[in-house]
Amino acid sequence: MKKLLVFLALVTGLGIVLNFFLNSYIQAIFISFMINAIMALSLNFITGLADQFSLGHAGLMAIGAYTSAILNKEVFSDNWIMIPIGVIAGAIVAAIAGYLISLPSFRLKGDYLAIVTLGMAEIVRVVLLNWNHVGGPRGYNGIAKFPEFFINYGFAVLLLFFTFMTMLRLKFSWFGRNLWAINEDDIAAEVMGLDVAKTKRRAFVISSFFAGLGGGFYAHHLGYISPGSFQFIISVQILIVTVLGGLGSLSGTIVAALILTFLPEALRSLPTGGIDIRMIVFPILLILMMILRPQGLFGRKEISLGFLGRLLK
Amino acid sequence: MQEFLQHTLNGLSFGSIYALVALGYSMVYGILGMINFAHSEIYMMGAFAAFYTARFMGLDTPSPVNFTIGVLSGALLAALIGFCVEKFAYKPLRKSPKMNSLITAIGVSILFQFGGQIVFGADPKLFPNLIEDRTLFTIADISIHLIDMLIYFVSFVSLGILSYIIYKTQTGRAMRAVSTRPDMTPLMGINNNQIISATFLIGSALAGVAAVLVSIKYPKIDPMMGVKIGTSSFVAAVFGGIGSLHGAVVGGFLLGLGEYYLIGYGASTYKDALSFLILILVLLYKPTGLFGTTRKEKI
After folding, report:
1. Which of B32, B283, B284, B293 to mutate to test the interface with A (most CBs of A within 10 A)?
2. I want to staple A152 with a disulfide (CB 3.0 to 4.6 A). Which of A67, A68, A146, A302 is the partner?
3. Closest CA to B90 of B109, B68, B116
C-alpha cells in the first residue's frame, strides 16, 4: 500500500512537471515512451518468456488502433470520454486476431511463428491500404483525442501500469513457470504433461491483447493513423527495445524503452540527409548486442525496489 | 487466351527470378537452420554492385559483352558481400540459440537498407542499358522479348551450374553432408566453416545474378528494392519446402505464375498479400511445403 502511494505521488509529480514546466515536444516523447514500453512488454511476454519469435506486432497494433478509431468515430461520435472503451475493444479484437494467427503457427516447431506473424502483419497492412472507408493509403484522420495533456498522460500511465503489473503477476504465476519450462526445454516440458502448443497459444493471445491495447492508445494519442504507421520496421523497433532490455525481463524492457525513445531524439541533429538516424543506430546496436551480450541489459532479472533501496544507502 | 499466355510468360520470367533468390534462402536454411533475412539486401547490393561497376568501367552501350560483365560483376560482388556478412555477423553466433542469429539477420537487413539510403541515396537510380531489348519473334500475337529469353537462359545456366556443384563435386557432397549431420561431418574431415562460407558464396551469387537480370528488365534500382522480391522468394522457398533445392525452384515458378495471374486478372493491389496468404495456407495444410521432409526429433 505504501509502495503504491509513493508510486502514485511520483507519477503525479512527474505529470505536473511535464504539464506545467515542459513543452509539448517533451510531453509527446514521454507519451511515445509509454506506448513503446507497452508494445515491448507485450512482445517480451511471447518472445522473452515463451521463446516464440513474433515479427508481426505492428500488425496487431494496427488492428487495435483501427478498431478503436473506427469504434470511436462511428459509434461514439468522437466523444473522448468513450476512448477507454474503444481501446479495450481494440485490444479484444487484437486478441481474437492473435488467436486466429496462433492456430497455424504452433503446429510446427521452430521459426514458423515469426514467418506467420510477419505475413499476417503484411496482410493487415494490405487490407487497410485497400479499405477506402478508413482512408486507404491516405490514412484515417481526425480521431478523437483527449482534450488535456494531463488526462492523456494519466490514461497512458494507467495502461502501462496495468500492462506491467499483469505481466509481472503472470511471469511469477504457474502460467509463467510453464512458459519458462517451454523456453528452457520444450521436450522436457511436454514429457512433464504440459500441453506445449496450447500454452504457447494462450501466451500469444495475451501478448496480442496488450499489443492491441498499445495500438488503440497510439491512435488516440496521435489522432491520425495510416497503414504506413504499421510497417515491418515498427515490429523491428519493438523487437529492438525488447532485446536491449533483456528477453524475459519486464523492468529491463521499461528501461530499454526509456533509453531507445530518448536517445534518437538526442541524435536528431546529426547530418544524415533526411534518413532516420534510428535506423542506422538501432540495427548496429542489435547486432553488437547479439554478439557481445545476447541476454540483453538485464537478462531475465527484474530490478527490485529493495535493490534500488540498497543502492541509495 | 492470348492474354493468358502473356501472363504465363511474364509469370515464368519472374518465377525464374524468384527461384534464383529462393535457392539462397533454402540453402542457408538447409545448412544453418536459420532464416537469412539479409538475403534480400544481398540481392539489392548485387544490383548496386553491377550499377557501379558499369559506371566505373564506362559500360553504357548495350552489347552482349557488357551484359556478361554486368551479370558477372553483380554475382561476384554479391557473393563477396554475402561471405562478409556470414563471417562478421553470423559466425560469432554459430553456437548461440537460433533466435539470436535470426535477430542479427534482421539487424543486418535493416542496416543495409538504411545504410544504403545514406551511401547510395534514397531516390531510385537508372540502371544502365546493358542489352538492347527487342522483340525476337511473335507467336500467336504474343511477342517474345529478348530480355525475357535472356532471363530464362541465364537462370537455367545458373541452376545448371548450381546442380553440378551440389550433386557432382566434393564441395557439394560436403554441403549435403553438413546439412544432414553437422555434428558428424568434422569427423569425416570436413571443415564446416569452409562449407558454410561456400554456401553463402553460392547463394549470394545467385541473388546477384537475379538482381542484375531484374534491373535490366525494370531499370530503376533503390536501396529498398530487395524487400518485395525477398519476401516473395522466401515464401516460394517455404512453399516448395524450405531446405529443399528442387522445392525452391518449383515454388519460385508457381509463385511467379500466381502473382502474374493475380495482376493480370484485376486484383493487383492484393499482389503483396498473395504471397503471405499462400504462406499461411501452406503452413496450415502442408507445413513442410511441397518437397520438404520432417526429421524425427530424438531426445
Report:
1. B283
2. A146
3. B109
Q: In whole angstroms, what is the distance from residue B207 CA to residue A89 CA?
A: 45
Burial per residue of A23-53, b for 16 or more beta-carbon CB atoms within 10 angstroms, e otherwise: eeeebeebbbbbbbbbbbbbbbbbbbbbbbb
Taking CA–CA distances from B288, the nearest residue in chain A reads: A108
Q: How far is CA B80 from CA B13, B42, B75, B158, B205, in A?
A: 26, 10, 9, 17, 8
Name the pTM for this structure: 0.85
| All cell numbers assigned to A161 | 501500469
The distance of A245 to chain B (nearest Cα, Å) reads 14
CA B67 from chain centre, in angstroms, equals 19
Nearest to A272 among B98, B101, B118 (CB): B118
State mean pLDDT over A189-206. Answer: 89
CB neighbours of B143 closer than 8 A, spacing ≥ 6? B135, B137
Query: ∠ at Cα A42 (A247, B284), nearest 5°?
Result: 95
User: Measured between alpha carbons, how far is A160 from A214 in angstroms, rounded to an integer?
Assistant: 9
From the list B115, B227, B111, B42, the residue with the least C-alpha distance to A282 is B111
Q: How far is CA A268 from CA A265, A275, B113, B129, B185, in A?
A: 5, 10, 19, 39, 50
ipTM score: 0.81
The verdict on a CB contact (< 8 Å) between A275 and B93 is no
Residues of A in contact with B34 (CB under 8 A): 111
CA of B31 vs chain A CAs: smallest distance (Å): 15
The per-residue pLDDT of chain A, averaged, comes to 84
Cell 518449383 sits on residue: B250
The residues that bridge with B135 in the sheet, in sequence order, are B145
Helical (H) or strand (E) element with B243 = none
Each residue's pLDDT tens digit, B237-292:
888 887 788 888 999 999 888 888 888 777 666 777 777 788 778 877 777 777 77
Inter-chain touch A107–B111, beta carbons under 8 Å: no
Backbone angles phi, psi at B190, to 5 degrees: -100, 135
Tens digits of residue pLDDT in B98-152: 778 888 888 899 899 888 888 888 888 888 877 777 777 777 777 778 888 888 8
d(CA B72, CA A179): 50
pLDDT single digits (tens) B208-252:
999 999 998 888 888 888 888 888 898 888 888 877 888 889 999
